[in-house]
Amino acid sequence: MLKEHRTNVLLHGDPQGAEPLRKAIAAYLNLERGAKVYPEQILVLSSTRQSLFLCAQLLVDAGKPILLENPGYFGARKAFESAEARIVPIDVDEQGIRMALLRADRSGANCLYVTPSHQYPTGATLPLERRLELINWAAENGKWIIEDDYDSEFHYEGLPTACVQGLDKYQRTLYLGTFSKTLYPGLRIGYMALPHELVKAFTYARSIMDGHTPQILQLTLARFMEDGHYNSHVRAMRKLYAGRRAVLLRALGQHLGDVVTALRPEGGLQIPCLLAEGWSEEKTIRQAEAAGVQLAGLSRLYAGEQKRAGWILGYASLTDYEIETAVQRLASVLKR
Ligand SMILES: Cc1ncc(COP(=O)(O)O)c(C=O)c1O
After folding, report:
1. Candidates 118, 126, 181: which one to mutate for ligand 1, based on the most atoms within 8 Å of Cβ?
2. What is the pLDDT of residues 215-249, one digit of tens each?
3. Which residue among 7, 108, 273, 303 has its CA within the 20 to 30 Å range from the CA of 225?
4. Centre of ligand 1 from the C-alpha of residue 48, in Å
5. For residue 293, how many C-alpha atoms fall within 13 Å in the half-sphere facing its CB?
């Protein structure tokens, strides 16, 4: 890459992102995610976190409301809280965001954050009818939809659904993607696919914030995608993670079936589990930690009083053996 581009890659780059990478991302989204996007709508950033921060700064004024899924991603909540937005939670059910609640919302919010592919943390996949209803709601009421498609590459059961952006003929959707899950989080490359009318403002804000993403990283990633390595890598990882997911589900059923009910998301890299009556989330997490098993609690992701106790179990970075032994260790410490 250095030989080809010489010292150019050491200079400042385009704040919107290197053209080859924007082209590669647009082609990927159109082909693999059913998006309808041109390279000039892509803004290359460091992460979904940065995308959310920009959304919070540009779309919501201090003191004004923002609609967030409940339960939902704490990263989104933090980004909007940092812009002093007022969080308005909208409950989800086993199919994702509840459209009746959204239609009934009178907060005056102009923007909604959603995770339609795999709702975070429940794992629900928003069905096509709700996606279309969501788009109509946004178009009729002049709202923005922030679609966080953070791990849609990993879909194991049923058919993957087209992203909301691709279905939205009204240009009301801001699509957020990241390479944190498919490659590695330390890479720090994410992106947005923006409605045409927002590209200029977001690019300008980004140029003030941190200029651009390092060119050498962008150009290397673009080449990796153009040559087909990215798609092969994702396919290989999908197979690997499907296997790990099966191991975790089986181990949970075998060793902890009376303690938790594992929800079965169609995809993603985590399994949300609901604790049975009589088991405390706080206590089980403490006991697990003492036995060297890190558990993330479910209840902290709920707004308001109605919370469900449980855990979110990530399995992507563990081998089959590590998953099996961790679950066994957990079962023995909890049932002691
Ligand atoms: C819902 C959700 N969105 C996005 C991300 C990825 O964020 P980033 O690109 O900032 O690493 C995560 C990571 O945990 C996530 O859980």
Report:
1. 181
2. 999 999 999 999 999 999 999 999 999 999 999 99
3. 7
4. 6
5. 26
